[in-house]
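The record is given unchanged here:
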Amino acid sequence: MASDSVKENIKPTIPLKLLVDDKKTRVLAAEASSDFVDLLSFLTLPLGTVVRVTDSQLGSIGCMNNLYQSIQQLSTDIFSTEASKSILLNPRNPHADVFKNRKLNIDDSSNGKYYLCPKCAKRSHYPNARCCRGLANIEKFKEFRHADGFVKSGMMFVITDDLRVLPASPSSLLQLLRGLGFVDVSRIEYISIMLV
Protein backbone atom coordinates (compact mmCIF):
# COMPACT_ATOMS: atom_id res chain seq x y z
CA MET A 1 0.00 0.00 0.00
CA ALA A 2 2.94 2.34 0.53
CA SER A 3 3.63 2.30 -3.20
CA ASP A 4 0.08 3.60 -3.82
CA SER A 5 0.68 6.65 -1.63
CA VAL A 6 4.01 7.28 -3.38
CA LYS A 7 2.24 7.16 -6.77
CA GLU A 8 -0.32 9.69 -5.56
CA ASN A 9 2.45 12.16 -4.63
CA ILE A 10 4.21 11.87 -8.00
CA LYS A 11 3.11 14.58 -10.40
CA PRO A 12 3.20 13.90 -14.13
CA THR A 13 6.00 15.65 -15.94
CA ILE A 14 6.61 16.37 -19.61
CA PRO A 15 10.15 17.12 -20.78
CA LEU A 16 10.70 20.07 -23.13
CA LYS A 17 13.82 21.20 -24.88
CA LEU A 18 13.77 24.94 -25.61
CA LEU A 19 15.68 26.53 -28.47
CA VAL A 20 16.74 29.93 -27.21
CA ASP A 21 18.38 32.86 -29.01
CA ASP A 22 21.07 33.58 -26.44
CA LYS A 23 21.69 37.13 -27.70
CA LYS A 24 18.05 38.22 -27.60
CA THR A 25 17.11 35.83 -24.77
CA ARG A 26 13.98 34.74 -26.57
CA VAL A 27 12.49 31.27 -27.02
CA LEU A 28 12.42 30.41 -30.71
CA ALA A 29 10.76 27.01 -30.42
CA ALA A 30 10.40 23.99 -28.22
CA GLU A 31 11.07 20.36 -28.96
CA ALA A 32 8.51 18.12 -27.27
CA SER A 33 7.19 14.59 -27.20
CA SER A 34 3.74 13.33 -28.09
CA ASP A 35 2.68 13.85 -24.42
CA PHE A 36 3.01 17.61 -24.88
CA VAL A 37 1.15 17.62 -28.19
CA ASP A 38 -1.63 15.57 -26.56
CA LEU A 39 -2.27 18.64 -24.40
CA LEU A 40 -3.99 19.91 -27.52
CA SER A 41 -6.93 17.85 -26.29
CA PHE A 42 -8.13 21.15 -24.82
CA LEU A 43 -9.41 21.84 -28.35
CA THR A 44 -12.14 19.25 -27.68
CA LEU A 45 -13.44 21.17 -24.65
CA PRO A 46 -16.81 22.89 -24.85
CA LEU A 47 -16.64 26.69 -24.45
CA GLY A 48 -18.43 26.59 -21.08
CA THR A 49 -15.76 24.27 -19.70
CA VAL A 50 -12.95 26.50 -21.03
CA VAL A 51 -14.49 29.55 -19.31
CA ARG A 52 -15.04 27.65 -16.04
CA VAL A 53 -11.52 26.18 -15.94
CA THR A 54 -9.73 29.38 -16.92
CA ASP A 55 -11.76 31.53 -14.52
CA SER A 56 -10.59 29.50 -11.55
CA GLN A 57 -6.99 29.17 -12.72
CA LEU A 58 -5.82 31.82 -15.16
CA GLY A 59 -8.12 34.81 -15.05
CA SER A 60 -10.80 35.93 -17.44
CA ILE A 61 -11.53 35.51 -21.12
CA GLY A 62 -13.02 38.88 -21.98
CA CYS A 63 -16.74 39.09 -21.32
CA MET A 64 -17.20 35.29 -21.41
CA ASN A 65 -16.64 35.17 -17.64
CA ASN A 66 -19.42 37.74 -17.14
CA LEU A 67 -21.77 35.62 -19.21
CA TYR A 68 -20.86 32.48 -17.28
CA GLN A 69 -21.24 34.20 -13.89
CA SER A 70 -24.61 35.67 -14.84
CA ILE A 71 -25.90 32.19 -15.70
CA GLN A 72 -24.55 30.95 -12.34
CA GLN A 73 -26.53 33.64 -10.53
CA LEU A 74 -29.85 32.92 -12.26
CA SER A 75 -32.40 31.02 -10.22
CA THR A 76 -32.92 27.40 -11.19
CA ASP A 77 -36.65 28.15 -11.31
CA ILE A 78 -36.35 30.03 -14.61
CA PHE A 79 -34.85 27.05 -16.48
CA SER A 80 -37.06 24.49 -18.19
CA THR A 81 -35.52 21.67 -16.12
CA GLU A 82 -33.17 21.41 -13.19
CA ALA A 83 -30.58 19.89 -15.51
CA SER A 84 -30.71 22.81 -17.99
CA LYS A 85 -28.65 25.15 -15.82
CA SER A 86 -26.12 22.41 -15.15
CA ILE A 87 -25.84 21.68 -18.88
CA LEU A 88 -24.99 25.34 -19.58
CA LEU A 89 -22.51 25.69 -16.72
CA ASN A 90 -20.92 22.25 -16.92
CA PRO A 91 -21.09 21.10 -20.54
CA ARG A 92 -19.63 17.67 -21.15
CA ASN A 93 -16.81 16.99 -23.53
CA PRO A 94 -17.87 13.95 -25.55
CA HIS A 95 -14.26 12.73 -25.44
CA ALA A 96 -13.62 13.36 -21.73
CA ASP A 97 -14.00 9.73 -20.68
CA VAL A 98 -11.64 8.53 -23.38
CA PHE A 99 -8.86 10.93 -22.39
CA LYS A 100 -9.34 10.81 -18.61
CA ASN A 101 -6.09 8.85 -18.17
CA ARG A 102 -3.81 11.14 -20.17
CA LYS A 103 -0.63 12.39 -18.52
CA LEU A 104 -2.08 15.87 -17.97
CA ASN A 105 -5.86 16.12 -17.91
CA ILE A 106 -7.30 19.63 -17.76
CA ASP A 107 -10.90 18.54 -18.30
CA ASP A 108 -12.55 17.85 -14.95
CA SER A 109 -16.02 17.40 -16.43
CA SER A 110 -16.01 13.62 -16.44
CA ASN A 111 -16.20 11.63 -13.24
CA GLY A 112 -17.67 8.50 -14.77
CA LYS A 113 -21.16 9.26 -13.48
CA TYR A 114 -24.22 9.07 -15.64
CA TYR A 115 -27.92 8.88 -14.92
CA LEU A 116 -30.55 6.51 -16.26
CA CYS A 117 -34.22 7.10 -16.73
CA PRO A 118 -36.07 4.31 -14.88
CA LYS A 119 -38.82 4.23 -17.54
CA CYS A 120 -36.92 4.14 -20.82
CA ALA A 121 -33.26 3.54 -19.75
CA LYS A 122 -31.94 6.58 -21.65
CA ARG A 123 -28.63 7.94 -20.37
CA SER A 124 -27.79 11.48 -19.34
CA HIS A 125 -24.64 13.06 -17.93
CA TYR A 126 -26.85 15.32 -15.84
CA PRO A 127 -29.13 14.37 -12.91
CA ASN A 128 -32.86 14.82 -13.40
CA ALA A 129 -32.58 15.50 -17.12
CA ARG A 130 -35.96 15.14 -18.77
CA CYS A 131 -36.37 12.39 -21.33
CA CYS A 132 -39.35 11.01 -23.21
CA ARG A 133 -40.93 9.17 -20.27
CA GLY A 134 -39.50 10.65 -17.09
CA LEU A 135 -36.39 11.99 -15.42
CA ALA A 136 -32.95 10.41 -15.57
CA ASN A 137 -32.26 10.06 -11.86
CA ILE A 138 -30.71 6.62 -11.29
CA GLU A 139 -27.00 7.22 -10.68
CA LYS A 140 -24.59 4.83 -12.40
CA PHE A 141 -20.82 4.74 -12.90
CA LYS A 142 -18.79 3.54 -15.80
CA GLU A 143 -15.19 2.51 -15.90
CA PHE A 144 -12.76 4.53 -17.96
CA ARG A 145 -11.05 2.75 -20.76
CA HIS A 146 -7.45 3.48 -21.60
CA ALA A 147 -7.05 5.37 -24.84
CA ASP A 148 -4.17 6.28 -27.04
CA GLY A 149 -3.38 9.93 -27.42
CA PHE A 150 -4.19 12.06 -30.42
CA VAL A 151 -0.73 11.57 -31.92
CA LYS A 152 1.39 8.44 -32.08
CA SER A 153 3.36 7.73 -28.91
CA GLY A 154 7.09 8.37 -29.15
CA MET A 155 6.83 11.02 -31.86
CA MET A 156 8.78 14.25 -31.40
CA PHE A 157 7.53 17.69 -32.43
CA VAL A 158 8.74 21.26 -32.76
CA ILE A 159 6.37 23.89 -31.40
CA THR A 160 7.11 27.38 -32.68
CA ASP A 161 6.73 30.59 -30.70
CA ASP A 162 3.53 31.31 -32.62
CA LEU A 163 2.18 27.84 -31.70
CA ARG A 164 2.63 25.99 -34.96
CA VAL A 165 3.23 22.28 -34.43
CA LEU A 166 5.68 20.60 -36.82
CA PRO A 167 7.13 17.09 -36.89
CA ALA A 168 10.62 17.20 -35.41
CA SER A 169 13.05 16.72 -38.24
CA PRO A 170 16.26 18.42 -39.30
CA SER A 171 14.53 19.88 -42.36
CA SER A 172 11.60 21.38 -40.41
CA LEU A 173 14.02 22.84 -37.84
CA LEU A 174 16.24 24.27 -40.57
CA GLN A 175 13.20 25.73 -42.36
CA LEU A 176 12.01 27.30 -39.08
CA LEU A 177 15.40 28.87 -38.36
CA ARG A 178 15.70 30.19 -41.92
CA GLY A 179 12.21 31.69 -41.63
CA LEU A 180 13.33 33.49 -38.46
CA GLY A 181 16.40 34.85 -40.29
CA PHE A 182 19.02 32.74 -38.50
CA VAL A 183 22.24 32.06 -40.30
CA ASP A 184 24.46 31.73 -37.22
CA VAL A 185 23.25 28.63 -35.37
CA SER A 186 25.94 29.14 -32.72
CA ARG A 187 23.59 31.76 -31.19
CA ILE A 188 21.04 29.04 -30.42
CA GLU A 189 21.16 27.43 -27.02
CA TYR A 190 19.26 24.30 -25.93
CA ILE A 191 17.69 24.39 -22.48
CA SER A 192 15.97 21.33 -21.05
CA ILE A 193 13.04 21.85 -18.68
CA MET A 194 10.25 19.73 -17.19
CA LEU A 195 6.61 20.80 -17.23
CA VAL A 196 4.80 19.70 -14.11
Remarks:
- Residues 2-38+150-195 form one domain.
